[in-house]
Each structure stands twice: as structure tokens, then as C-alpha cells.
Amino acid sequence: MALLVGDIGGTKTVLALAHFEHRQVRLSDECRYASEAFDGLEAVIARFVEESGARFDGAGLAVAGPVVDDRCLATNLPWELDARRVSECFRLRRAWLLNDLEAVAWGIPALEPSQLAELQPGRQTPGNACVVAAGTGLGQAGLFWDGRMHHPFATEGGHCDFAPADAREAALLAYLQPRLGGHVSWERLVSGMGIGHLYDFLRQCHGGAHAPAVARAIDEDGDLAAAVADTAAAGACPVCVEAMDLFASLYGREAGNAALKHMALGGVYLGGGIAPRHLHLLRGGSFLRGFLHKGRMGPLMQQMPVRVILEHRAPLFGAARYVAQAAARH
């Protein structure tokens, strides 16, 4: 029987069935739901079953947040997830919860070269790797290389303290601290919400009116990050252009921080929804300048391959692969 797999985030929840064929994972019945429209994971799964008629006897569910003892308080969603409760509710043999970036890490070996975009070739040598994914939040995971294979593991590195590198960034930190309760993490800058924060800060610095698309997003409580990014891409607003350039630089800086902490000679992978939608931005120079600007470690950074994950289903493939190995252990 098939396995239910899911990618549960603050903006959307994606569910699908995973089938194992000749040691490969095939997905079917993929459905996407707005997470905020439901009061919990069980309600989303029930809707999926109702709409698809899907049958499954196990589940692997990737969630944006720290998973401890098969439970998780989602970081950017007011849900408490419990694998045992899911199992009982849908009469499954077992359900597994794992961090969404750990799931992406598990999914990387299932990707074809065409599902990746290269930002820096590096040396192409085996070694540890890491994943840094900007979307609703900023997820991070590591892949330990044992000399034969990678072992993915979850982290919450996106919640580490932001450290300014110049006077403008020091002013940015001072601007955000009182607005965010004192603690400013990298996630508050390198994410969809981060683009909004960067735009607000720079507009306060420079003054002037909002660009029309940005004004509409603010008035209609729409997607401010998308409006800023699209306006910047069109070159229609200097503040938007500066905000996205700063975003790319900060993304590169934090990806470089993660790469150093993991000694990621095996590769740095950029996941999440922002990187594949804005490849032109990441290839514009600011990202790699931020990534490489590590003082005496600059030559080491040049050896690390940097790739963007283009396949949005990587967490689903990864959740299926995780369950397969977990079930084999038991």
C-alpha cells in the first residue's frame, strides 16, 4: 500500500502518495492546501482523503519546526503536530514526523542534475553538505559524510542571532530589535518576512512613496515580499532594488556561515521557494560575494559547490526515503 507524504509549512501544506518502485520513489495524487485555512494537520489529511479517495497505511510528514519525540510545535503556524495522534486518527501502522529541511536533505540523492541550478561549481569532492532554504522562514539542515554515504540531520540554524557586518546593517539591527522583541535572527531577514523587513527599513532610510504594486500589497494585506521582488526585477523602484540586493547579500552570508559550520565541501544546497523563483537575483553577484567574503576562509569557500534546488517536491521524496530507512531499521 502507498505511503502518505507531506510538506507542512507556514504558508502551504502539500500532501501526496509515495510509491516505491525498483528502489525509486514515485509520487501521485499531489494536492496543495493553504495551511492557515485549517486548524490542524488532521483536518488537512481528512480533506485530502475526502478529495482524492487515497488509501495508505503509513505516513512520513515533513514539518517546518523542531521535531522532538515525534511531536512538533510548528514555527510559523499555530499547530501542534503529533505523529501518534495522526496514526490513531487514520488507523495507520505508523506515522513519522521529521523536520522539513531534514526531509529536503534526504531528498537530494533522488534529484537529477536537471533539477539543480549551479551558482558555483566548487571542487566536486565528497564530503559533508548542508541545505539552507529561504521561504516563509529560513530552514537549515546538515548531511554528514561517513566516507560512503550522507546522513542527514536537522538543525534550527536559521534562528541564530543576526550579526551586522557594516554600519548599514548595524542600523538595520537597531531598527528591528524593538519591533521584534529584542532578538533578531537570520530568519527575520533571509525569508519572505525578511524581504518585508528590509524594504521597511530602507524606505524609512530613504523616504519617498511606495511603488504602486507595493502600495497595493500593503493596502490589501497581500504578499509584500512578492511585490517588492517583482518591482525590483522590473527596476521600477530603487528602494525595492536595494532591498533585494541586500537580501541576496545576506542570504549569501548566512549560507556561507552554514557552509563553514558544516565544512560543506560536498555542497551547499539552496532550497525553499525564493531561490528558484529568483535565480537571476542570486546570479547577480551579491549572493556569491556574501558567501565568499569569509576573510582567511575565502579560498576554502571557493571549493564548495553551491546549487539551487529547483524541484519543489524534494521534501516529499525525502520524507519517503526517510520512512523507508526508518522502517528497515525497525
Automatic annotation (TrEMBL):
Give compartment(s): Cytoplasm
Q: Record's Pfam families?
A: Glucokinase
Give yes or no: UniProt keyword Transferase.
yes
> Which UniProt keywords are listed?
ATP-binding, Cytoplasm, Glycolysis, Kinase, Nucleotide-binding, Transferase
- UniProt family annotation: Belongs to the bacterial glucokinase family.
Record carries keyword Transferase: yes
Reactions catalysed according to its record = D-glucose + ATP = D-glucose 6-phosphate + ADP + H(+)
Name of this protein: Glucokinase
PANTHER family, alphabetically? GLUCOKINASE
Amino acids binding ATP: G6, D7, I8, G9, G10, T11
Which NCBIfam families does this entry report, sorted A to Z? glk
What CDD domains does its record include?
Answer: ASKHA_NBD_GLK (cd24008)
**GO cellular component annotations, sorted alphabetically?**
cytoplasm
Q: What is its EC number?
A: 2.7.1.2
Gene Ontology annotations of biological process type: glycolytic process
- Family matches, as InterPro entries: ATPase_NBD, Glucokinase
Gene responsible for this protein: glk
Q: Which GO terms describe its molecular function?
A: ATP binding; D-glucose binding; glucokinase activity
